[in-house]
Amino acid sequence: MPMREDCKHFESRSYPNGDTVRKCDHDLAPEAPWRCPEECGSFQKRRIDVDWSQGSLVTPATPDEPAGLGDDGSIAALLDAAEDIVNEAAPGVLADFESERGGTGKLRRLLGRVKKERRGKGGGGGSG
User: Fold this and answer.
1) Is residue 86 helix, strand or coil?
2) Do 38 and 2 share a structural domain?
3) Do 41 and 79 fall within a single domain?
4) Domains of the chain: total
5) N or C: which end of the chain has fewer CB within 10 A?
6) Is residue 66, in this structure, part of any structural domain at all?
7) Which of 54-58, 62-66, 110-114, 119-123 has the lowest mean pLDDT?
8) Residue 97, φ and ψ in degrees, nearest 5
């Protein structure tokens, strides 16, 4: 099933350099930005965005699916592995940044808090 742009948890963000992120805020679409799970238990029809500042009513087009995107879960596994690599590298990058800036550990505490919140969601595409 394509990404459900009408879901309350769908988010699309464009950046000045032209890059666009299309994702599920609950991290429940392991094949984002191309697909949502067929039977997603968190799907909620978007009704109203109260007090939100909308930049555009047009969501950028979905990028073309890679040729190997199938129904075997391989894309989800690949994206999960990539997320694991980033998550494993983040503490070292933050430590380097803090040592260069003479930091007080605020970034490390923030990262720990983010990881704790992700675990508390009860789901997600990868380890966090």
Assistant:
1) helix
2) yes
3) no
4) 2
5) N
6) no
7) 119-123
8) -60, -45
Domain, as residue range, for 22: 1-47
pLDDT at 119 (0 to 100): 63
pLDDT attached to residue 118: 63
Question: What percentage of the chain exceeds 70 in pLDDT?
Answer: 70
Q: Note whether 41 and 75 are same-domain residues.
A: no
Considering the domain boundaries, does residue 34 fall inside one? yes
- pLDDT confidence of 57, banded at 50, 70, 90? low
The tens digit of pLDDT for each residue in 97-128 reads: 777 777 666 666 777 776 666 666 544 444 44
Please state whether 27 falls in left (phi above 0), alpha (psi between -120 and 50) or beta. Answer: left
Q: Is residue 63 part of a domain?
A: no
124: left (phi over 0), alpha (psi -120 to 50) or beta: left
First to last CA, the chain: 26
In a domain, 56, yes or no: no
- Asked if 26 and 117 count as a contact pair (C-beta separation under 8 A), the reply is no
